[in-house]
UniProtKB/TrEMBL annotation:
Species whose genome carries this gene: Serendipita indica (strain DSM 11827)
Organism placement in taxonomy: Eukaryota, Fungi, Dikarya, Basidiomycota, Agaricomycotina
Polar residues composition bias: residue spans: 1-10, 86-101, 112-123, 383-396
UniProt biased composition (Basic residues): 20-29
Role: S-adenosyl-L-methionine-dependent methyltransferase that specifically methylates the N(1) position of adenine in helix 25.1 in 25S rRNA. Required both for ribosomal 40S and 60S subunits biogenesis. Required for efficient pre-rRNA cleavage at site A2.
Name the UniProt record assigns to this protein: Ribosomal RNA-processing protein 8
Pathway(s) the chain acts in: Pyrimidine metabolism; UMP biosynthesis via salvage pathway; UMP from uracil: step 1/1
Length: 614
């Protein structure tokens, strides 16, 4: 019964639909709409996936897939709007969902799809990558480089050759990765060799073993230098394919009947970061074969690529085919060696030497058996005074091995030397700098001193100690050598000091002796000759001759110098090949008056504030 009555209105005879049933009816209608919407989305997604599979570039494909999916979602979302709008404003989008073939033709004309059509391009522009994609790409390339690098280091050269033949892109990927690696270094050793070789007299024949992309040849051939480049994979313009550890297609011999081999034509062999395979000593052997008598072998290797093993580090000198003239550790990333071809004392036992190739390891793989922090190649070259000395259990007998030049590298030494070069540096600061550098040189030059033991007592208990066994002498060359004496006396307070007076005649640049008070016979076992500057080398040679005439063997003399010229070093080495030289830096040129360039002026004048340098 109704509560009130309205005219012309009657209640229906059938029951009113309940709220629940009405709700269910609306839900069924909405479900149909959602199904239609989901079907459209699924169609759009499927189309996008098909287009992704057709692309070669994963990054570009994913990007376009997201764009297509977004566009499809927008189109299907409009289906829930009134039918009139769908038919008019969004008719094209509806067509997209229902006719994919037609829309693909249309979209080729749309500007945004021009990038999508280039998905099949093999080499898309890197600038199109996001920061994350670029980072992932760089990581993958770095991993590829490290993998190839370890393969080459742990394989024989013969196996490496086969690997390259099976996968020609491997060596290209390695060279590309290596170029990226070198960009982070302060300097590329190849660039240094280009400068160095361009200054040598011509004609000059250079063999670049393991040349990579032949940067040496590309720079030097236009300058008139003959550069022969060899690597695992050849190149039609510059690179000759060869296994440099087994045979280099150049004339030369290593017959025991020949003093230094016959038929060799090469003046300089370069191995710039290329001694990689387990049989890398074969490359050294080939270098000796193709070099002229007295020819130079120049090696640059990554510093931590060497593993100074306890066994096989120091080969007998009779195995030597090269005399080391320079070892340069001034760079933090690589170490450089300069060797001169010499005649072997007897036929070389290459089978024995080949067992020592483990000294060189992949530079990114640390070795648990490494015992020394510095590298050495003494296992196959006749050298003794590298920056790393043998342990006390393996005493070094200097009289049995040729000498060497050690450039002492340290950030503090470099900073002190740079201050010495400045013209505004005061005499007091100059004396302090020479003192500090001399201290470092003295420590470095004393690494292999023999010691003897003694019994002592500490405040707690007894102990077994060591002390220097040899009698030490200091010979400063007056007057500049006085600046180094106090530092050396700090290290060796009991040392005997013998002064030698020499000056360089200003016109002829020849040394003139004016003071010597050496005893009648040597009273020391080892002498450190102190001369802050070695310019022409004449004064140092004269002083060494005076010590030799006194009765000292050259192997018992060590020359310490703050700064030297390459010409001066060569002069001293030519006169005394077995002499050990320790220097903080080497300048490449001399002025007409015999001063080093850039140099630091006249050391004696600057030490004594007599203002004679210009």
């Amino acid at each position: 019964m109704s509560l009130f009555t309205v005219s012309d209105w009657q209640a229906p005879s059938e029951p009113v639909v309940s709220h629940t049933s009405h709700k269910k009816k609306r839900k069924r209608t909405q479900s149909t709409s959602e199904q239609s919407e989901m079907a459209a989305k699924l169609t759009s997604v499927q189309n996008a996936l098909e287009r992704l599979k057709a692309g070669d570039d994963l990054q570009r494909s994913e990007k376009r897939g997201k764009q297509e999916e977004s566009r499809g979602s927008s189109a299907t979302a409009e289906l829930s709007k009134p039918l009139k709008k769908t038919a008019t404003s969004y008719g094209k989008q509806t067509t997209v969902a229902n006719n994919d073939t037609h829309v693909q033709k249309k979209r080729r004309k749309e500007p945004i799809q021009n990038t999508g059509s280039s998905i099949s391009t093999p080499n898309p522009a890197v600038k199109g990558l996001t920061a994350l994609q670029s980072s992932m790409k760089s990581s993958l390339e770095g991993a590829r480089f490290r993998h190839i690098n370890e393969l080459l280091y742990k394989s024989t050269s013969e196996n490496a050759t086969e690997l390259v033949k099976q996968d020609p892109t491997m060596i290209e990927d390695y060279h590309a990765g290596f170029r990226r690696q070198v960009k982070s270094w302060p300097v590329n050793p190849v660039d240094q060799y280009i400068i160095e070789l361009s200054k040598l007299p011509k004609p000059l024949v250079v063999a670049d073993l393991g040349c990579g992309d032949a940067a040496l040849a590309r720079a030097l051939v236009p300058k008139g230098v003959c550069v022969l480049s060899y690597d695992l994979k050849g190149h039609k313009s510059y690179v000759i394919e060869a296994d440099i550890c087994r045979h280099i297609p150049l004339p030369g011999s290593e017959s025991s009947n020949d003093e230094e081999g016959e038929g060799a034509v090469v003046d300089v062999v370069i191995c710039a970061l290329s001694l990689m395979s387990t049989n890398w000593l074969g490359c050294v052997r080939e270098a000796w074969r193709i070099l002229r008598p007295g020819g130079r072998l120049k090696i640059a290797e990554v510093t931590n690529g060497f593993q100074a093993r306890e066994q096989g580090m120091w080969a007998p000198p009779t195995y030597s085919q090269f005399a080391k003239t320079i070892q340069d550790t001034s760079n933090t990333h690589f170490i450089k060696f300069d060797f001169r071809k010499i005649r072997p004392a007897k036929p070389v036992n290459w089978k024995e030497l080949s067992r020592r190739g483990e000294v060189l390891q992949p530079y990114h793989v640390p070795s648990e058996t490494s015992t020394d922090p510095e590298p050495t190649l003494a296992c196959c070259f006749g050298s003794s005074a590298s920056s790393t000395r043998p342990r006390q259990s393996q005493p070094l007998h200097k009289q049995e091995m040729p000498g060497s030049v050690t450039v002492v590298s340290h950030p503090l030494v470099g900073a002190k030397l740079s201050k010495l070069r400045k013209v505004e540096t005061s005499p007091k600061e100059f004396r302090e700098g020479v003192h500090q550098i001399s201290m470092v040189l003295g420590i470095e030059a004393s690494r292999d001193l023999e010691t003897k033991t003694f019994e002592g007592k500490s405040p707690i208990t007894t102990f077994q100690g060591t002390e220097i066994a040899r009698r030490i002498g200091l010979t400063p060359i007056l007057r500049a050598g006085l600046g180094m004496t106090e530092a050396m006396l700090t290290l060796f307070p009991e040392a005997h000091v013998y002064y030698l007076g020499l000056f360089r005649e200003k016109v002829t640049l020849q040394p003139v002796e004016y003071y010597s008070k050496l005893p009648s016979s040597p009273t020391v076992d080892l002498v450190y000759l102190l001369d802050p500057l070695v310019a022409t080398g004449g004064t140092a040679v004269a002083a060494i001759n005076m010590l030799v005439d006194w009765g000292l063997a050259v192997e018992n003399i060590r020359l310490l110098s703050v700064l030297a010229s390459q010409e001066g070093i060569d002069h001293v080495r030519a006169e005394f090949p077995t002499l050990d030289i320790y220097v903080a830096a080497i300048d490449s040129e001399l002025t007409g008056k015999g001063y080093l360039t850039p140099g630091l002026g006249d050391a004696g004048d600057r030490l004594n504030n007599t203002f004679g340098f210009h």
